[in-house]
Design a protein that fits this description.
Blueprint: E1 3-4, H1 7-27, E2 33-39, H2 43-58, E3 62-68, H3 74-86, E4 92-95, H4 105-111, H5 123-130, H6 139-150, E5 159-163, H7 170-177, E6 187-191, H8 198-202, E7 207-210, E8 228-231, E9 235-238, E10 246-249, H9 254-257, E11 263-264, H10 271-290
The structure holds NADPH dihydro-nicotinamide-adenine-dinucleotide phosphate (NDP).
């Protein structure tokens, strides 16, 4: 049976360390501040935003919750971002994605001052990451690397297979894991919907990272015995037995995979808490850089 990687506990540990940093900044009169912008009323986005604000509060950071109606114009959003760029109380700006379809995500991200881009999505941050220069790393990939580090799982020399090539998870994670750094030096394969034989690829993985957004698509027979399995997926599956009418599941069939893997992350309680922790990490870093 696999060892369960407890993202909540690793996260709690890291947040204790971050709290000390916040305390010491506050002694110097600096309170790290995060602005969270939510456009529209998507329930999943709302719950992510609430969790981010709550976490800021727990660390004694300042958070500003800005909600805009779904029919707000792109110009209004860019205008708001412009003001937040100038705001001295704000160290990090997070615009919750996805945006309504009438807004251009690339244009909105470009509007954020790279020095406040705590999501690490701005092309300047992405470019610096690829060139291995100091920058804000995207939170989910960074959180995954931290989880591996905590479990003393070294990617060096390992075969890593990532299922998913999105700009926020698959692509940056693949990039980080090939870097000549302690968190990298792996041999990485990235799979997607045009990969002809997914099982052949996943069975080759020493570290298998599922980030496809497809509930339980990775079955136990797709996992190499002894592999480390990181499940990034967060999927809402209808479930009448639950009061809220759905349950959360990952991209991995957990009960099957835990019998084959050496380590595995659960959903919820694996990668999710780490994503928020790395957002706090970046915001504190930004406050330190700025002041
Ligand atoms: P996207 O939808 O942007 O990307 C999904 C990727 O998976 C695409 O590259 C797609 O391929 C690939 N894919 C989809 N289905 C298959 C399949 N059957 N076989 C092979 N590849 C497939 O998703 P995100 O990267 O934004 O998110 C992925 C998952 O991770 C979601 O469940 C999301 O909710 C979750 N997530 C969790 C976070 C956390 O903190 N825990 C943070 C961010 C995301 P193609 O490019 O060919 O379409």
């Amino acid at each position: 049976m696999a060892i369960i990687i407890d993202g909540k506990s690793v996260s709690a540990d890291l947040r204790e360390q971050l709290k000390l940093k916040v305390d010491s900044l506050k002694e110097k009169g600096i309170t790290p501040g995060l602005a969270v912008v939510l456009i529209g009323d998507d329930p999943a986005s709302r719950s992510y935003v609430t969790a981010k604000e709550k976490s800021c509060g727990e660390l004694g950071m300042y958070s500003r919750d800005i909600r805009m109606p779904a029919d707000s114009s792109e110009e209004e959003l860019l205008d708001l971002i412009g003001k937040l760029n100038e705001d001295k109380d704000i160290d990090g700006i997070l615009v919750q994605l996805p945006l309504p379809s009438h807004m251009d995500e690339n244009k909105v991200i470009l509007g954020i001052d790279p020095s406040k881009d705590v999501d690490g999505f701005h092309p300047v941050s992405v470019g610096k990451m690829v060139l291995e220069q100091e920058t804000f790393l995207p939170c989910t990939p960074h959180g995954i690397l931290k989880l591996l580090e905590y479990c003393d799982i070294k990617p060096e020399g390992k075969k890593v297979v990532i299922v998913g090539r999105s700009n926020i998870v698959g692509k940056p994670l693949a990039n980080l894991m090939i870097q000549k750094q302690s968190w990298g030096n792996a041999t990485v394969t990235v799979c997607h919907t045009r990969t002809p034989d997914l099982k052949k690829e996943t069975l080759d993985a020493d570290i298998l990272i599922a980030a496809a957004g497809q509930p339980e698509m990775i079955s136990g027979d797709m996992v190499k015995p002894g592999a480390v399995v990181i499940d990034v997926g967060v999927n809402r599956v209808p479930d009448d037995t639950r009061k809220r009418g759905y349950r959360l599941t990952g991209d991995v069939m957990f009960e099957e995979a835990e019998k084959v893997a050496s380590y595995i992350t659960p959903v919820p309680g694996g990668v999710g808490p780490m994503t928020i922790t790395m957002l706090l990490f970046n915001t504190i870093q930004s406050a330190q850089n700025r002041k």
